[in-house]
Design goal:
about 180 residues; alpha+beta; Alpha-Beta Plaits; flat
Length: about 180
């Protein structure tokens, strides 16, 4: 019987780190299904969804955890095999503006108050071309309940944008088929 795990890891960035993980996964008959890997603050961090025969799970976990000897922190978590059903709509938010404390908190609070589920979020800070001011950039893919009033959400995001000098663009998606 196949089983799935999410492998999370963080360690000092170095060449060969992904290959080392891939080798351990493959040697335990694991199939690398999905991943999100990134350099952050001089570290390399990631999430990997792995599928493998159930009898190989214990050995995979032991070998991955043994990688801590090379400075890699690894956690293996059983994943749900059932797909998550959804009847909501997709939205994408793009955010840009002067970097400051509280941007993610304010936007995530507005989303959470409306039962909006963040599916994926990418963010970074970069220097503005002319002024060298630090700018916060983010893209947030989310799923909103079918009954959500998008005008209410837009109004709330506009208030956040005005108070924090941000540009927040809301791109409306489609209803999920299901």
């Amino acid at each position: 019987m196949e089983t799935s795990f999410i492998v999370t890891f963080i360690g000092d960035d170095r060449p060969g780190l992904v290959e080392q993980l891939a080798r351990v996964i493959e040697s335990n008959r694991g199939n690398w299904l999905e991943s999100r890997l990134s350099q952050l603050g001089g570290k390399f961090a990631g999430l990997v969804l792995v599928s493998l025969p159930g009898e190989c799970a214990g050995q995979l976990e032991a070998e991955l955890k043994a990688m801590s000897a090379s400075g890699l922190s690894v956690r293996v978590t059983p994943a749900s095999s059932a797909p998550v059903a959804s009847s909501g709509r997709n939205i994408t938010l793009t955010v840009i503006g002067p970097d400051r404390l509280g941007i993610v908190r304010e936007i995530s609070r507005a989303l959470a108050q409306r039962q909006v589920n963040v599916v994926e979020m990418d963010s970074h800070v970069s220097s503005a071309p002319m002024s060298a001011e630090m700018l916060f950039h983010s893209r947030i893919d989310a799923e909103i309940p079918a009954q959500l009033d998008l005008d209410d959400l837009q109004e709330s995001l506009d208030e956040i944008a005005d108070s924090m000098t941000l540009e927040i663009e809301l791109e409306r998606g489609n209803y999920h088929e299901g």
